[in-house]
From TrEMBL:
InterPro entries listed in its UniProt record: FBPase_C_dom, FBPase_class-1, FBPase_N, FBPtase
Cofactor(s) essential for the protein: Mg(2+)
Enzyme Commission identifier(s): 3.1.3.11
Example of a GO cellular component annotation carried by this entry: cytosol
Gene Ontology MF term list: fructose 1,6-bisphosphate 1-phosphatase activity; metal ion binding
Name of this protein: Fructose-1,6-bisphosphatase, cytosolic
Family statement: Belongs to the FBPase class 1 family.
Swiss-Prot/TrEMBL catalytic activity: beta-D-fructose 1,6-bisphosphate + H2O = beta-D-fructose 6-phosphate + phosphate
Segments passing through the bilayer: none
Length: 304
């Protein structure tokens, strides 16, 4: 029956965000407008990633980013799209992007009250082989948008007010939290809309998967090495855990959120402060993990 194939009461991401906004009667809808512009950026990147191979968007753009990584054309394109979308939303005053050496302070005429920290295309070294990649973002409120300084951007992760990621893979999935749980949406390309497919995501309490780059094992400190050893050779009679490591944080975290287990990128002799970037990888993913009932730790305790 036609009725079976066409759901007529779609929970789109826009409708969900508006529902969330209605929980805050004092809200002027600024976050709703900001998120709608982030969603636009994700739709654009999803389209570009899907065409990358055909449109010769893979390969190096010849520039390097602040981490000295070769920038692929998709990196540059994605960054430009998100910067333009965020600035034109009129709801941001400062942007921190993994692809830009300096923070972007928005023209005072277009300023809003939010700071967005984002990695427009995380895991981009995987573009050429078709492995899932993603956009990661975290949102803070800035006390005084007109006199915002870089110091104000460096807020603790616990002050983040919203976070999310968009994974560009076999399907395009956007996972979002505005502080009231975590929800997942899948892009319906025929509609150009993100439809809720994963309501109220909660990480399974027990997981059988550990996710780490074992290639760094010789650089690990003893506690890390002992923990991973226990995953492989449990001493309590339980069966060994399975290792799954994609090397694209969005994909590894998404699998962990849905299937349970642990994802870790421990500090080691090669990267004494760890490799993952705090502002636009660690804090946003920690926000989501905790909102989904999980936990997030640095080597010295819970992520602040
Ligand atoms: P490695 C991608 O460059 C990234 O920042 C994350 O997406 C990913 O989890 C990590 O680096 C992979 O690092 O050293 O295991 O290749």
């Amino acid at each position: 029956h036609a009725a079976d194939t066409f759901r007529t009461d779609l929970m789109t991401i826009t409708r969900h965000v508006l529902n969330e906004q209605s929980r805050h009667p004092e809200s002027r809808g600024d976050l709703t407008i900001l998120l709608s512009h982030i969603v636009l950026g994700c739709k654009f990147v999803a389209s570009a990633v899907n065409k990358a191979g055909l449109a010769k968007l893979t390969g190096l753009a010849g520039e390097t980013n602040v981490q000295g990584e070769e920038q692929k054309k998709l990196d540059v394109l994605s960054n430009e799209v998100f910067v333009n979308a965020l600035v034109s939303s009129g709801r941001t005053c400062v942007l921190v992007s993994e692809e830009d050496e300096k923070a972007t302070f928005v023209d005072p005429k277009l300023r809003g009250k939010y700071c967005v920290c984002f990695d427009p295309l995380d895991g981009s070294s995987n573009i050429d082989c078709g492995v899932s990649i993603g956009t990661i973002f975290g949102i803070y409120m800035i006390k005084n948008q007109d006199t915002v300084t870089l110091e104000e951007v460096l807020q603790p992760g616990k002050d983040m007010i919203a976070a999310g990621y968009c994974m560009y893979g076999s399907s395009c999935t956007l996972v979002l939290s505005t502080g009231n749980g975590v929800n997942g949406f899948t892009l319906d390309p025929s509609l150009g809309e993100f439809i809720m497919t994963h309501p109220d995501i909660k990480i399974p309490p027990k997981g059988k998967i550990y996710s780490v780059n074992e290639g760094n094992a010789k650089n690990w400190d003893t506690p890390t090495a002992k923990y991973v050893e226990k995953c492989k050779y449990p001493t309590d009679g339980s069966s060994p855990k399975s290792l799954r490591y994609i090397g694209s944080m969005v994909a590894d975290v998404h699998r962990t959120l849905l299937y349970g287990g642990i994802f870790l990128y421990p500090a080691d002799k090669k990267s004494p402060s760890g490799k993952l970037r705090v502002m636009y990888e660690v804090f946003p993913m920690s926000f989501l993990m905790e909102e989904a009932g999980g936990q997030s730790f640095t080597g010295k305790g819970r992520v602040a």
